[in-house]
Model the fold of this input.
Amino acid sequence: MRSGGKFSLIAVTAGLALAACGSPTGPENANGGENALPGAEQYLSSPCPEAGTKPTGRQFTYWSMWTADEPQGKVLKRAIDCFTQKTGVTVNVQWLGRKLLTQNVAPALNTADVPDLIDQDLNQLNAAVVAPGGTQSVEDVFALKVGEGEKTVKDVLTPTSYTMPQNRDAAGKPFLVPYELISNAWWYNRDVNPNLAPPRSIDELFALFDKAKQDGKAAISQDGDINDYNLYFFTQLAARFVGPGGIVKAAQDRTGQSWKAEPGFLEAAKLVERLAKGHYFVDGWDASKFPQVQQRWADGESVYTFNGSWLPSEIREYLGKQGGGKAINYGSFQFPMPAGATHDIVEQLPIGFSVTAKAKNPEPAKAFIAYVLNKDILAGIPAVSDNLTPRTDLAVPDDLKPIKAVLEDPKKEHTLIADGLSGMGTYVDNVFYPADNALLKGQLTAQQFIDQVAAKSAEYWRARG
Done:
C-alpha cells in the first residue's frame, strides 16, 4: 500500500509503506478488464443491508485516507450511500489520500474545524493523532450491533486485530476499530516454482536464494527507495528473537545499550549481513524508484520478493495496464525461525476508524463504524480491493489464503509490522533507517550496525533532554 499509496503507517516513515499496502488496483480492475476481481461488480450493485445501530444524529464529517476511485474508496463510498439510505444520516466525506493525517488532521487538531471520523493504519494514527491527544475512546463501539441479528462489533472481529497494546491511548482505551488487515510474506510465482516447499530453516531459505542464482536469475527484488521495505528484513528476524514489543523497547532506551545487551539483535543483523554479502538482490534494486523493482519481479527477472499482502493488488494493476492477459499464480511463505529464536511471530497492521477528541457528531460516526463491519458491507474489501479483513467469516482472496491462515494460527504471536518502529517518527528517520539501509546494502557489518544504532540512539535521546 504505498502512501501516497505505500503502506503504511507508513508518514512517510510510515506513510510510504501504506502506500504500498493498500495500493489501488485501479478503477479498471474494480469494474472489469483482464485482471478484474471476481465479484466486484456484483458487490457494488448488491442491495444495502439494514443498519444494526440507528443513530440519533443527522450528519457527521469523515476525512478518508483513500481516494474515491481506489477500490477501498469504492467500498467505503458504497457503505456511505447505504448508511444514508438506511438511516437518513448525511456523511460529509472528503477523500484526502494517505497524507491526510500530517497534511489535514494534525494541523486541524488545535482548531474547531476537525472531522468527526478519520481512518488510517494503527501506527500512523498513534504517531500523528493519538500522541497529541487528538482521539477519543472507541470502546463503546465494540458493543454496537452491526446489523446481523444481535451480533456486535466485538462479536465479529478477530480479537488479535484490535487488542494489541499499541491500540491504547493515554487512558488505556482503544482508539481504533479495524476494517482491513495487512500482513506480509515472501512471494513467488507458483507457475514458475510449482514444487517449492516453504523453507523450514534459515539455511533452507538461503538455499532457495542460491538455487535462483544458479539458475541464472536474481533471487530477490526489492524497491530499495522504500525505507520500510528495507526495514522488514531486520525486524522480521529480530522480532523472532526478542518477541512483540522488543524492538520498540530497545529503540526507546535512552542509553542505547539495549541494542548491545540483547544478543538477538546482533544475530538478526548477521542474517541481514548474509543477505547483503550474498548479492541476492536484483541489479539496481537500491537505485530505482518504486514500483520499478517489484514490477521487475512481476516480469520474471527475480524469483522472490518480500512484500505486504497488498502486493497482488498492486501487481494486478501493473499487469492490467500492460495488457496481454498475463497473470501471476501467487505463492507465499513466512520467514522461517532462525536458530536460537523463540518467538514464532506473524506481523500484522490494522487499518481502521478513529473518532476525534473534538468530534461534534461522535454518535452517528460510531454507528457508521459498526455499519461498515456488517458482513455484506465489509465483503467489499476482499471482493473489490483484494485485501484481508479482520473478520474470519468473509471470503479470502485466493492469493492471500496462506497469509490469512498464518494470521489465524493460534500458536503464532501477533506483532505489529516492524514492531511499530515505523511509527517512531524522527527516531526511525534519523537513527534507524540510515543504519539499516547501510547494513542491507553491505556498507556496514552486523557489529557496526549494532554499534551505530546504539550510539545514535543515545545521541538522539540526549538531544531531546
About this structure: The first helix runs from residue 15 to 21.
